[in-house]
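Chain A, query sequence.
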Amino acid sequence: MIFSTGQTILFIGDSITDAGRQHAPPYGDGYVSLIQALLQARYPELGLRVINRGVSGDTTRELLARWERDALAEQPDWLSLLIGINDVWRSFGANPHAAVPLPEYEANLRSLLGSARERGARLILMTPYMIEPERSVPMRRQMDWYGAVVRRLAAAMEAVLVDTQAAFDAVLRHTPPEAWATDQIHPNRAGHAVIALAWLRAVGFSV
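Chain A, predicted structure.
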């Protein structure tokens, strides 16, 4: 397991990370809550501190605006980032002007991650995803392009990679998308568990 005694792990991103934390503080009711509970139960001796700074609706643009206050100011030892779903999704909704083109997405990520590394944070990067098995579906195809950026940056920045899309692809071999989310994006409890398990495996969690 990659964490050491007394370290702070900060999770940040959009609604998937937020998961209603205003109504279920401090971790929300999603994958962050599941991860925090399992880390505490399995490694109580480490005294790990978990912070959730997800905000529903965020793209990388909104994240840039609050990065100093919500991420860097907390001085995390580890920073876990899941962002990009809204950057893509908005291309397919009523406000396509609010979508973030792929080159801007990559530039925003480089800025965010570079500043975190400068402050001494180690990185855990999670790919954006769509709970859709058919890769030719336009939104899924575009999401894969954004996920490829995250994979490339994870390798370049020596970050831990959590391939969230691959985790959903694995369960979709046996079940339909609606088993995990009604809209192919916002997971139900089982869908959040898929994300949490992928994250825990990537950091070396053992039972």
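Helices lie at 15-18, 31-42, 60-70, 85-89, 102-118, 138-156, 164-172, 189-202. The radius of gyration is 16 Å.
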